[in-house]
Each structure stands twice: as structure tokens, then as C-alpha cells.
Amino acid sequence: xxxxxxxxxxxxxxxxxxxxxxxxxxxxxxxxxxxxxxxxxxxxxxxxxxxxxxxxxxxxxxxxxxxxxxxxxxxxxxxxxxxxxxxxxxxxxxxxxxxxxxxxxxxxxxxxxxxxxxxxxxxxxxxxxxxxxxxxxxxxxxxxxxxxxxxxxxxxxxxxxxxxxxxxxxxxxxxxxxxxxxxxxxxxxxxxxxxxxxxxxxxxxxxxxxxxxxxxxxxxxxxxxxxxxxxxxxxxxxxxxxxxxxxxxxxxxxxxxxxxxxxxxxxxxxxxxxxxxxxxxxxxxxxxxxxxxxxxxxxxxxxxxxxxxxxxxxxxxxxxxxxxxxxxxxxxxxxxxxxxxxxxxxxxxxxxxxxxxxxxxxxxxxxxxxxxxxxxxxxxxxxxxxxxxxxxxxxxxxxxxxxxxxxxxxxxxxxxxxxxxxxxxxxxxxxxxxxxxxxxxxxxxxxxxxxxxxxxxxxxxxxxxxxxxxxxxxxxxxxxxxxxxxxxxxxxxxxxxxxxxxxxxxxxxxxxxxxxxxxxxxxxxxxxxxxxxxxxxxxxxxxxxxxxxxxxxxxxxxxxxxxxxxxxxxxxxxxxxxxxxxxxxxxxxxxxxxxx
Length: 596
What we know:
globular; 6-stranded mixed β-sheet
């Protein structure tokens, strides 16, 4: 039996000697390499926090003492030590542990934060609540990476935390000089000065206590610093220096991201088990480089994720034309507006889930000023294995309300390339493209066009109009085949530009008995809702039924598994449509079906 086999709660750690804790750290690294290599996930960040997490759980007593992780992808070791080791056999799969803190999994997980720069605000609130209620029996500890410190919200929180010197709060600054990418800007230079021993720097100037720098891989040194911080009684920053990817050759030598997020791979060679097919991201990457080669005014912006959002090739070709702002989405969007005012056409490449953070800037700073800025949302729709917070299922619902914003949803790689070219050519206001994570699949040619709509199939009588949104065009065509097999005539169209709604859809819907929309966005406020409003505005009596994602947070699993759980399969949709066509004497009854 290994030491790790004996650890089922943090209390067990406090029974171990310093030598046993060091041995346990080695066993945890071996376990992480084995299990994350098999499933895929955030390997590098967790290899870097093994000793830090052991120190935290020996000095503090979770869940009485509240531990917050920013960002939550560095919580794998915390999960192992809090009784969830068995769940790593199905990491990021149904029935296994999620890739981020999860309140349903354990009382040791207080905050499900997978969006960066939030933990200090949670911690400030908890410390204020303790003070208000007179609680003195539990510490508040926030672990925040230096990458997350590039987000403005972290500094808003620090400003408020420093304003309450009487409130006890331990801030562990996990400094590995990176988020996904190297930490950028003046903060990176300032932290380098602190690492050289020139502290306490800005933290001391704000009035916060400062301890460090501390070797984050020396368990005893981290324990001593944490105990001292807790004893000081006010807000204290413990500056811990760690190495991302530590202890595994294939992460330590990965110059791109130190194994930040790995796909299933051979742990001995570090090579992926499967080759990656052509993805939407790679198509965007190639097309953007082509466009930039022709247009000197194109500049791309990333919020610390150049490679995952497809900007690495452009950065390598034109280094000065990719701007990394750190984890600062709000700044990125308003800076894009400024670039546009200065005669540059910005392309803001960002995950769909993160654009939620910059809605005000997109609305007021870009759209109100009618700036020609192009937004490219990767990971739109169902992402799956990264859990509820990383699904991009809200962008259409949220952004369709923005006046003047044109939104496109490419169904395949060819359409993505074409629509991107159209988007950056548009000068009347902002444009946006959205596409999912994963393979672009085979291109789906249009058989005809109708007033700007791509007709993908037209067979039989005018029974059902299927409006396919983006990457679910293939699913829509499979549904069409199932309906045709039952003698139901079908028309399948792809609007390409989904916002504003093409008025031709109203004319086409009028000619059919039933219209349906198929999208991987929330049914609440999605494309289907917008088309339904257009039909009402044009006095079209054809019933319309929206198929999409229900208004709930979705559990982790593969994209296919999550879509199936939402009823977005050919069998489910075909069956529902056949049922909807049955009560022909009461056409409006199709609107009263169960919420999917």
C-alpha cells in the first residue's frame, strides 16, 4: 500500500512526518501523470501546486477553513486529498470528478470558479461576513495565480481588502510566471522584482501584509509562511514561487504551455494518442493569416490564450500584430474600439464563455460607437468536458440584443473562412463569428440559395422548414432524412448570418406547415426565439418550434453526451417533429410541448 492509498481526508496529512509528506508529493505527481494522461485535462498547473496544496491542507483545516482556488483548474491535488481520488478514473467524464471545483462533489469545494480573477472578491465577502457575524473559528484563504492577477477584478478586490486591515484573510499568490501563456505587462515586471527580493512592492503600498518570496516546492517553508500569515490577523499576501509542469519531463520541456491542458496521451512519450482532425480553430487560424497577409490594418487581440484561440500562427508570422492583454477581457474589447477609432481593424479572438465578462464594453464602447470590430468566439455552444462554466451556450441569447451587431454561425470550415472574410470587410459596425470546439467535419455544400439563405436540402412537399444554425447543420440534415423516410417533405436552410434575422425566413416559413430551429445555444433568447418574433412581426401563422439547450447549467461530459442529454439528437428531434405534425386540426398545439 502506498502513502496515497492511506489518504482519504486532509486530517490524515497532519499525521504524516515531513519526510512522508515529501514522499506523498512524489506519489501524487505519479498519480496525476497517469490519470490526466489517460483522460486529458489540466496537467501542468496541478503538477506545479502539489507541495503548496499539501502545505495548505496541513496548516488549515478544510472545510472549517475555507480554501478558494483561482483559477479552479489547479484544484486536482486538492480533490485527491479530499477523498475524490477514485473519481479520477473518469476525470471530466460523467460519473467522474469535474475539472474544476464542484460543490456537488465535496463540502471542501466552496466556489466553482473556472473564470479567473474572482477568488479575492469571494474571499473579501466571506471575511466581511465573518466580521459581521462575529465568527472567529475559520480562516479564509484564497489561492490566486499571477496570471489571474492580470484581471481587473482582482485589483478591485485588493483595493477593498486593503481597506479592511482588521479583517483576517490569507492571499496565496501562486507565482509561476504564467496563466496559459506567460504573464504580461507591468505586473510581470513588478513580480519579477519581488521574486528578486525587492518586496513588498505594490502590496505593501496598498497596506497589505506581505510574506515572501517562498519556495512553493518546499513544504516546510510554505507551512511556516502560512502559519505566520494566519497569526498576523489581517489581510496578508504570501508570495509563493512555483514551477508549472514540475516533475514531468514532457511538461517541463513544453515551451508553449508547460502542459497546461493536455489531450489523452502516452505518459511515457508525451505524444497524443490520437491525431487531431481539422478543427474550426485551425481553419480560423489559417484564414486569418491569409487575410492579414493582404491587409496591413488587421490586428488580433487575445486574453492570454493565443494558441487555444488560433492566433499562434499569426503571432509567429506577424509578432507585432497579436496583442496579449492578459486575463482582461473588458480591457481587450474597449481597447479594440480604440484601435478601430485609430484606423485599425481588430479581431478579438476569445472563448464564448469569456465574452460574457465584456458585455458592457461590447455594447457601449464598440456597438454604440458603431466600430468595425470583429469578434471570433471559439468554444461556442456545448463544449462538454470542461463543465458547466465553459459551455458557450449563452452568446446568442446575450449578444442578439446588441444593436448593429451582425452575428454569423458557420456550419463548416469553408463557411468559416468565407464568413470571416465578409466580417472583416464590413465597415458599418461590429461583426461576430461563433463556432464550437472540435473538428470542422466535411464541408456541406448548398444546393441553392434563396434571398441570402443557403438551401441545404429541398425534398418532397412543403411540410417542415428546418433552420439549421451553425455546426448543427449536419444534425439538421440527418433529421431531414428521417422525416423523408416517414413521407414528410423537408426544406433545410442555413441563414449563415443569424443576426439580424433574414426576412426571407418569414417568406419561406409561410409556405410550410411547420418550422423548426436547431441550435446549440440556449432556447431562451436564442436564434429560434428571434425567428419566432420575426414570424409574428410578419403575421406568419406557421407554428415554429425551437430545439436547443435548456435553461440550466450542464454537467460535464463529451460534447455528444451533453447534446444527447439536451435532446439534440436526430432521433429525439425527428420523433418530436412527427408528433408535432400529428394534431393538424390544432396547429398551435405544437407550441405547448415539454421544455427540453
